[in-house]
Every structure is written in C-alpha cells, then in structure tokens.
C-alpha cells in the first residue's frame, strides 16, 4: 500500500517549510511498503549547521500547524544530520558531505518517489538568505 494521503500532505508541508529556509536537493521517498514504521522519508540538504537547524525549526513549526506531533528529534546539537520523526513521515536534513557519504537515496532506490511541487525551487529562490 502506498503512502497515505495524510503522510503525503505532511511531506509537502515539510518540503515547503524547508524550501523557505533554502533547503537544497529535496527528495521524498515512499518507504511505506518496505518499512512498517513510517510512510515517507523526506531528505534535504543544508550548507552548514546553522542552516540545518533553521530548516529543522521551520519544519517543526509547519508540522505543529498541520497537527503532527514530533516523536523524536536527533542530531540537532551537532546539526550534521538532523532526524525529525513525525510517525507518518521522517525528515532527514543533512549537510552536503554527510548526505553524499550516507547516500540515503541509494539505500532506498527501490522505493518510489513522492512527487514534490515544481515551485519549491521558486520558493527557495525568493526566501531570504540563510546563514
């Protein structure tokens, strides 16, 4: 069974919040048929620890507004790889070199992608510059 409509809606809200903080290279992976714990992984990149934290905070706020409760937040202090777990979706925000090293998209390459809106790049381009 593919990701639920609710999980996809949360993914889109999280992706928009991340774009507003200039997150780069966002990918949403439907892991629902392979992983019983969640439906979607949203993977995004930030340039440095401050931007990764800003992206994480923006996503937290968007998820609160959407009524999703965060179950877990890991890695926020170092901010090289922040994991945000909202049960239906799990968000991974990595600095570029960590994302390349861990290659989450390669690990989950057999899973379908969740289509993200084309306007995310425009949102990121209009957003104020992040630290």
Task: Give an overview in words.
It is a single chain. The protein has 131 residues and is of the alpha+beta class. It is built from 5 helices and 5 strands. The longest helix has 18 residues, at 49-66. The N and C termini lie far apart (40 Å). The model has no long low-confidence stretch (mean pLDDT 92).
| Major sheet: arrangement of strands | 1-2-5-4-3
Pattern of helices and strands? HEEHEEEHHH
Shape: globular
Biggest sheet, in brief?
Answer: 5 strands, mixed
Mean pLDDT: 92
Instruction: Count up the helices.
Output: 5
> What fraction strand?
15-25%
Helix content: 25-40%
Low-confidence stretches: none
Q: Please count the beta strands (DSSP E, at least 2 residues each).
A: 5
Class based on secondary structure composition and strand pairing: alpha+beta
Give the CA-CA distance, first to last residue.
40 Å
Radius of gyration: 13 Å
Q: In brief, what are we looking at here?
A:
This protein has five helices and five strands, in the order H-E-E-H-E-E-E-H-H-H.
Secondary structure: elements and pairs:
Elements (H helix, E strand, L loop, with lengths): L4 H16 L3 E7 L9 E7 L2 H18 L5 E3 L6 E5 L3 E7 H7 L1 H4 L12 H7 L5
Parallel strand pairs: 2-5
Antiparallel strand pairs: 1-2, 3-4, 4-5
Helix pairs in contact: 1-2, 1-5
């Amino acid at each position: 069974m593919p990701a639920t409509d609710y999980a996809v809606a949360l993914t889109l809200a999280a992706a928009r919040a991340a774009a507003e903080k200039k997150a780069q290279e966002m990918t949403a992976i439907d892991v629902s048929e392979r992983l019983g714990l969640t439906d979607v992984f949203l993977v995004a990149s930030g340039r440095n620890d401050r931007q990764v934290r800003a992206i994480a905070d923006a996503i937290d706020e968007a998820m609160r507004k959407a009524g999703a409760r965060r179950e877990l937040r890991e890695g926020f202090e170092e901010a090289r790889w922040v994991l945000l777990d909202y049960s239906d979706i799990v968000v991974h925000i990595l600095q570029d070199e960590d994302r390349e090293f861990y290659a989450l998209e390669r690990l989950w390459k057999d899973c379908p992608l969740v289509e993200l809106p084309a306007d995310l790049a425009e949102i990121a381009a209009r957003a104020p510059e992040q630290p």
